[in-house]
Design brief:
- The structure is a single chain.
- The chain has 10 helices and 14 strands.
- It is an alpha+beta fold and 289 residues long.
- The protein has 3 domains: 47 residues, Uridine Diphospho-n-acetylenolpyruvylglucosamine Reductase, domain 2; 115 residues, 2-Layer Sandwich (Uridine Diphospho-n-acetylenolpyruvylglucosamine Reductase, domain 3), CATH 3.30.465; 111 residues, Enolase-like, domain 1 (2-Layer Sandwich), CATH 3.30.390.50.
- The longest helix is centred in the last third of the chain and has 24 residues.
């Protein structure tokens, strides 16, 4: 298939990128790692008049932190995230990034692109949901921050305006005694989008046994990545036992909204239960360290 013609622009900084997006709006498409965009262009699923490369926009690349938490530039690659130390509380994010595609894909794929594409199976979304991430969206002369939980709308859809650029993902400081884990099931072991993915985060009280806070998030088993809010809330105040994890895993499976596209809904729910059990067990081990 022949790709439609487009103009290529490579702004030097975020301000210039915002200016170009303000000029062209939905006629322009941003290019980060290109692992999703180039496929969409080649298949003529989209035909922008402008492709705006972000590879010189250094303000939105890398990780840094302050007393409030961690800032993750939207252009940071999955490989860079996989190699970063987010501590026990954030290990789910590094684990998820390490399982995106293959080494070649991970060296290109950015966290911003992963979220903006808004695929239900986006692997970096569930850990960011349990970490209560917020995303910063920039447009010329203005920006807004929204909770990731309010970002996704449906398969391939999110709340961004055509002229907006995701600049940062903000991870608030998590209490000590927090640990997280990520589990993924695909058909193959590599180069595979998730059939089911689960991230769990547990914060333990000072006694090291009572769960002060818990959050569980799912990928690929609903129209969007989602928090299993009832299951997470149900664990709060309970002891970190196999029995309580098992009950939470069953509730999580009920909260999933599988669409029955790549596997049956029954199988998806069974796998959600299994993977949630594993993720909670490992998140507890991480929180106990
Ligand atoms: C072989 C293969 C295997 C894969 N396996 C996995 C997998 O296992 N798990 C998984 O989650 N994904 C997987 N993917 C999907 C893909 O790699 C990810 O979704 C990737 O993170 C997208 O990021 P990117 O930088 O390549 O985005 P791009 O392709 O450059 O852009 C994707 C979309 O996001 C927009 N965009 C990008 N950055 C920004 C920004 N900062 N602000 C606003 N809009 C922006 C672009 O305009 C475009 O619409 C796979 C892809 C391939 C090709």
């Amino acid at each position: 298939m022949i790709m439609q013609k487009f103009d290529y622009q490579a702004p030097a900084d975020l301000k210039e990128a915002c200016q170009i997006m303000a000029n062209y709006g939905d006629k322009a498409k941003l290019l980060a790692g290109g692992t999703d965009l180039l496929i969409a262009l080649k298949k003529n699923r989209i035909s922008p008049s402008q492709v705006v490369a972000l590879d010189q926009v250094d303000e939105i690349k890398g990780l840094w932190s302050d007393d409030d938490g961690i800032y993750l530039g939207a252009r940071t690659t999955a490989a860079e995230i996989a190699d970063s130390d987010f501590g026990a509380a954030g290990q789910a994010l590094a684990e998820a990034a390490a399982q995106v595609g293959s080494p070649l894909v991970r060296n290109l794929a950015t966290v911003g692109g992963n979220l903006v594409t808004a695929m239900p199976a986006a692997d970096m979304a569930p850990p960011l949901l349990v970490m209560q991430a917020g995303v910063v969206l920039e447009k010329l002369g203005d920006n807004r921050e929204i909770a990731l939980d309010d970002f996704f709308v449906g398969p391939g859809e999110q709340v961004m305006l055509p002229e907006e650029i995701m600049s940062l993902i903000f991870l608030p400081e998590l209490p000590s005694g927090s640990g997280s884990a990520f589990e993924k099931l695909g058909v193959r072991k590599a180069l595979e989008r998730s059939i089911v993915s689960v991230a769990a985060l547990i914060t333990l009280a000072d006694d090291g046994k009572t769960i002060q806070e818990a959050r569980i998030a799912l990928g690929a088993v609903a129209p969007t990545p989602m928090l299993a809010a009832t299951a997470g809330a149900g664990l709060c105040g309970k002891k970190a036992t196999k029995k309580n994890f098992s009950a939470a895993a069953k509730t999580t499976a009920q909260e999933a909204r599988p669409r029955g596209l790549r596997t049956s809904a029954v199988y998806s729910r069974l796998m959600v239960e299994q993977l949630t059990m594993r993720a909670l067990t490992r998140a507890y081990a991480a929180a106990s360290r």
